[in-house]
Write a structure and sequence with these properties.
single chain; alpha/beta; Aspartate Aminotransferase, domain 1; Aspartate Aminotransferase, domain 2; 2 domains; 7-stranded mixed beta sheet; 39% helix
């Protein structure tokens, strides 16, 4: 089985790396994080809290959900992996979307589960297509909203419609890794986890800027949480990661400003690349999917920017060889990226 593939950062010697490949935050986390870490360094001889009590309390207060419904993992990837081990085997079927987050394909393969990819509509999840594909034998439906690598988002009312139109025993997993960038659009879905076979996953790696500390979390119905908790490593999240994530939750104004800056730069990029002939899908994340006329054109643009230290992510692994994904970075670097990107695109168009 092939491993989950990470970005390749080979650039010419002497060039400063500008990473546009991993969807990291455009700025450092809240200043409260450094203070919180400093205040807890003296406790590093101790194991971390295996129940993540302070972090769960902060998340519970922020989202008005039961603390006991929350599980935390080393990034949301650990939680996805544990859900897969708890629910999937060779007799299981997973329904997901055409351009689903690649890690769901990885976990389906190593549990020997069958996986069905449902066609999207112009890079956007089609709930009608998922409903048509899922039946009483479907073990799990997995979708990301907003999507990765597309960046597109469907209204949460559509996800409620999905839940109401698939078998009540089918586990519905919604990966909301990028949700903070669009939470203002409509209501939360956490109430679904209290009464249905539904899981909502989130992470601190994107809008909160804690990719280097690896903290994810999810809201679960009690019986699902019980099974997944058995598979999570004890003491999985380090002490400093827990206090840093808690500090982030307690500084919502800082996170929202990160999202505002990201949206401003993202939307400007989309408008500018449209001006030179590309048609990227509307993004509600911290990245933009750039579709070119051909895989060869995408490869040439990628190579041209790499020569100057700018590394985008090829989407060939998502069956989108003609696309590149570009993470939004800080204003200074974004200006440099756009100047060179627009020039490279203009040569292709």
């Amino acid at each position: 089985m092939a491993p989950y593939t990470l970005a390749e950062f080979a650039i010419p010697a002497g060039q400063r790396l500008i990473s546009l490949a991993q969807n990291e935050s455009l700025r450092a986390p809240s200043p409260r994080v450094a203070r919180a870490i400093s205040n807890h360094v003296s406790q590093l001889a101790q194991y971390p809290d295996p129940e993540w009590k302070e972090l769960r309390k902060a998340l519970s207060q922020l989202h008005d959900i039961d603390q006991q419904s929350i599980l935390c993992g080393v990034g949301s990837m650990e939680i996805i992996q544990c859900i897969a081990h708890a629910w999937l085997d060779a007799s299981a079927t997973v329904v997901t979307t055409q351009y689903a987050y690649a890690f769901i394909n990885t976990v389906a393969r190593y549990t020997d589960a069958n996986i069905e990819h449902v066609e999207e509509d112009a890079f956007t999840v089609s709930i009608d297509n998922i409903i048509a594909a899922a039946d009483e034998n479907t073990t799990m439906v997995f979708l990301a909203n907003p999507g990765n690598p597309t960046g597109t988002r469907i209204p949460r009312a559509e996800i409620r419609r999905l839940r109401n139109n698939i078998d009540p025993d089918t586990l519905l997993v919604i990966d909301e890794a990028y949700a903070e960038f669009s939470d203002q659009c409509d209501d939360y879905l956490f109430d679904l986890t209290g009464s249905t076979q539904t899981v909502i996953l989130r992470t601190f790696s994107k809008a909160y800027g804690l990719a280097g500390l690896r903290v994810g979390w999810g809201a679960f119905e009690a019986s699902i949480a019980e099974q997944v908790r058995k598979l999570l490593n004890p003491n999985n999240i380090s002490l400093l990661s827990q206090v840093a994530a808690t500090a982030c939750v307690q500084d919502q104004a800082y996170m929202l400003e990160t999202c505002r800056q990201t949206a401003y730069l993202r939307d400007a990029l989309i408008n500018n690349v449209k001006g030179v002939g590309l048609e990227p899908p509307a993004s509600q994340t911290n990245f933009v999917l750039l579709p070119f006329e051909s895989a060869e054109a995408a490869s040439r643009v990628d190579a041209q920017l790499r020569q100057q230290g700018m590394v985008m992510r090829s989407m060939a692994g998502y069956r989108l060889p003609h696309c590149l994904r570009l993470t939004i970075v800080n204003q200074r670097d974004m200006d440099f990226v756009q100047e060179n990107l627009l020039s490279a695109i203009a040569e292709e168009c």
